[in-house]
Design brief:
305 residues, DNA-binding, 10 helices, two-stranded antiparallel sheet, mainly alpha, Neurogenic differentiation factor, single chain
Length: 305
Amino acid sequence: EERISIMTRSVREDQVSVASEEQQESENKPKRRGPKKKKMTKARLQRFKVRRMKANARERNRMHGLNDALESLRKVVPCYSKTQKLSKIETLRLAKNYIWALSEVLRSGKAPDLMSFVQVLCKGLSQPTTNLVAGCLQLNPRTFLPEQTPDLPTHLPPAGAVAYPAHFPFQSPGLTAGLPSPPYGTMEPSHIFHQVKGQSYGALEPFFDSVLLSDGPAFDPPLSPPLSINGNFSSFKQEAAAVADYDKSFSFSVHYGGGGPAGHAALWSNPRCGDVQVEALMGYDGQSHHERLMNAQLNAIFHDS
DNA sequence: TAGGCCATCTGGTCCT
DNA sequence: AGGACCAGATGGCCTA
């Protein structure tokens, strides 16, 4: 009903605008270029209104489809809450970071430490979203946010510079306030790492303990975990391992704003994991079709478009 | 009250 | 001609 009223109102406004246009035409003004506008007869006006209403309906449907797609994206990024929805822009940013982070896990073949992972996830996100992600992980943002510096670039740093997870383009005293109030969203542990039965998480154990065993704030139950423990991520990892076996020098190109072969970025910089270098390899011959395809896809992601 | 986010309308452009 | 897509404008709602 609300939509219909909006539509009727807009049509009424249409009539007003058309009427004023006719008025304009009747006045002595410099001749307009382009095709001469036909006079709005009653029939033409009616057709115009119908066409406009149909176009509006199509546009509404189109936007609803877009929103539906965004909603399904919300459900597969790490932090999903029915009660505290991520905004559109934050959803896209988080999704981009998440893809980046998972790609990096695939590439390095080892689990990053939690802090680095969360830092990558939160890069470029607003403070409330960062808090939400922290809430999902039951972390205090203070514990993983590096020292804030204003006016940092929002794009990736140039070749040779340390990239993720060094920069957060916002600064807020609110970070010192700790977590937002419940309800938080959910972070499936399987969103982050492939769990092998009986495997020790090492340094990550406290994280899994806190997520899996906590009786802290009430979380929304997970809806549809995108990466089940034995699911997609597992097969991705196996595939990556197979490719790595095929050629130990396998890697993908990462270009930070014109970075050449010398360009690289230190990732997962952590004493426990050591630094993983992302090498920028140009024109690598001997790649299989699969590898070239994968490189292309990864490059598309890392170009930070 | 300002600012962020959102839905909707609208006209322009491109494509079929 | 009509549909898809896009970006600008506008107004409503919510929160700090």
